Amino acid sequence: MAAVVAAHFFPIPPSPPFLHTRIRNPTRRPPFPANASQTERDVEFETGNSFFLSESALGRDLGVLSATLHQQSLYSGSGLRVIDAMCGCSIRTLRYLAQAGADFVWANDASEDCRPLILSNLSRHPRVSPGGDRCWVVSHLDANRVLAENYLRREFFDFVDVDSFGSNSSFMGMAVATVRKGGLLYITSTDGHSSGGHRPHW
């Protein structure tokens, strides 16, 4: 979906912690054991204690495909800038770097507990390009905050990825504001089944 940068989305509504944090509910059976090593479309990574569903691979495939096609449509010399606002274990970030040809990806997850895992996974890709430009950065902020801070600095992205746990409604305003004019906004919900009333035991 193409999105034009919007101008006024303030004040920023607070978002419930469970919508932007990937830490598992202790009463819920984890999809994979902690620190499980995984391979998705030939990209190796670890899940650690972050929430991860292998069933969502198709959604990640479509994101990578969309980013790849958009990268090919950019002007020559204009690199693809991506922000993964809720990166979890960072598999999306890794795939944007390795498979979509992204020149820069901002990986953000609200949980600082995920930092060692994210850094370990992203260390599989160079942090700095041969030309000296950063390839990726990691932050731990509320998704709305990291999007708003980039918007205020006028640092826009060609591809904005928001994969929330449940509804995306509280993130839409800042997500749209952070997309570069002519860029793409990719919205998914990893656990949409639960927010839709299915799998109540989750």
UniProtKB/TrEMBL annotation:
The keyword Transferase applies. It comes from the Eukaryota. Pfam families: TRM. This is S-adenosyl-L-methionine-dependent methyltransferase superfamily protein. The keyword tRNA processing applies. InterPro entries: Trm1 (IPR002905). One of its GO terms (molecular function) is tRNA (guanine) methyltransferase activity. GO terms for biological process: tRNA N2-guanine methylation. Keywords: Methyltransferase, RNA-binding, S-adenosyl-L-methionine, Transferase, tRNA processing, tRNA-binding. The lineage of its organism: Eukaryota, Viridiplantae, Streptophyta, Embryophyta, Tracheophyta. PANTHER family: N 2 ,N 2 -DIMETHYLGUANOSINE TRNA METHYLTRANSFERASE, TRNA (GUANINE(26)-N(2))-DIMETHYLTRANSFERASE.
